């Protein structure tokens, strides 16, 4: 075993950051109640200018909890949420938790096949769904346990004037309305359910700290989607750790932009639970749109922005070009992909604030490592383990053997934010969660003597594009369904803002399938961000002795081509 001093990174913490945090015996529901008591009149949510105070949010949650209870939702039940960022999403999230039930977050842009796998796995009987995604869910409901679909029209949360403008008979209004809502026949309407419900009886049993709060689907280190079990304590701990990491935050005075989707683990913690924990105003964006974000800056300037590198790059460039003031953005935490130094430099030049890179994974709720929110941060590293978090770098073949400082190895993590396992998959859990609580991340890193961690490579061959995880096997399976494609390998190739999905395919003899046709056909089975940006036709794919496609060699081959594999060899 290594003779490293215990937690050497503590000496590199920013001033005011504690070595450990205390996680109270509370649930996330208690957290909302506490913020409601402290910050009742303060806006909790801002949706295109329509605000919901903390007191109003708590009342809406109580009504929604009663409405869901009347639908039969009980403690321990799973409830599927298939929603973009909107006030109804926040209300539904806490309403499910108030009943002691379990939230299962889903991307509303999933294809039927992607959604069906997850619904069948967790067995939810009630789903709260964006009305534009309702038809997708209805297509597969018969093959899942879902018996009740509640549709959400997020335009009902818009300011009154904006709702009226959507009804104006003009092409621009029609396009906006079509993008935000669609009829959902055969579903119950969220707004009507809440209007008919009284607030839930205050004596109705509440969840405990150790109860399961969320199932968050992830491919983990193997690429097969599994539900990570996150307790109230896991998520509460991560919110408290995040709050401790930025001691300059002012409770009840911050404004956080929810550009990251709440259905993603990163957005769930840093935008939702973290914001509620400090009484911040959460400005919700259903999708990232530069114009909408810069417009919000004039209405309610951001003070803390969690995002991914491409967002910082595009916002800073646009603000600089248009003369929009971003100086209110004091802090930013970048994650999900490597932060280019030039992006950090541009953002700090435009805002005058600090931008620091962090690291996490769904199984850690998700944040476990971050750069100090100070000038001591080190660009090119993901930073230091969070308070109350332990980290080790070990031999990937023997996790009992620690590496010396500076040597590469697999990163192990342990702390109150680390999950308890995968939903009903004990064998998969045993692969990543060691008996003494250490989480195997599957990432190869180096840790220097000061505790700063640099990600070197991935054991898993996950592709991260736009901050979203793409599992090569999913892309390959979809490509093999395309007529004329007999084999495929999907890899991530570097771009200015992270990675893009690129596929190498082998065509059947005599097939004359074009790149555009392959990409278009794959859209039937893949969410848009998983569709390969480029397709390269090859004669054969490199394989190991046991027949496994060697994706690393595919990636190296594509990178070696002129333009980094951007040319379609079939052209």
UniProtKB/TrEMBL annotation:
<dbReference type="Pfam" id="PF00501">
    <property type="entry name" value="AMP-binding"/>
</dbReference>
<feature type="region of interest" description="Disordered">
    <location>
        <begin position="388"/>
        <end position="410"/>
    </location>
</feature>
<dbReference type="InterPro" id="IPR025110">
    <property type="entry name" value="AMP-bd_C"/>
</dbReference>
<dbReference type="InterPro" id="IPR000873">
    <property type="entry name" value="AMP-dep_synth/lig_dom"/>
</dbReference>
<dbReference type="InterPro" id="IPR050237">
    <property type="entry name" value="ATP-dep_AMP-bd_enzyme"/>
</dbReference>
<dbReference type="InterPro" id="IPR042099">
    <property type="entry name" value="ANL_N_sf"/>
</dbReference>
<feature type="domain" description="AMP-binding enzyme C-terminal">
    <location>
        <begin position="474"/>
        <end position="548"/>
    </location>
</feature>
<dbReference type="Pfam" id="PF13193">
    <property type="entry name" value="AMP-binding_C"/>
</dbReference>
<dbReference type="InterPro" id="IPR020845">
    <property type="entry name" value="AMP-binding_CS"/>
</dbReference>
<protein>
    <submittedName>
        <fullName>Long-chain acyl-CoA synthetase</fullName>
        <ecNumber>6.2.1.3</ecNumber>
    </submittedName>
</protein>
<feature type="domain" description="AMP-dependent synthetase/ligase">
    <location>
        <begin position="33"/>
        <end position="423"/>
    </location>
</feature>
<feature type="compositionally biased region" description="Basic and acidic residues">
    <location>
        <begin position="392"/>
        <end position="405"/>
    </location>
</feature>
<keyword id="KW-0436">Ligase</keyword>
<dbReference type="GO" id="GO:0004467">
    <property type="term" value="F:long-chain fatty acid-CoA ligase activity"/>
</dbReference>
<dbReference type="InterPro" id="IPR045851">
    <property type="entry name" value="AMP-bd_C_sf"/>
</dbReference>
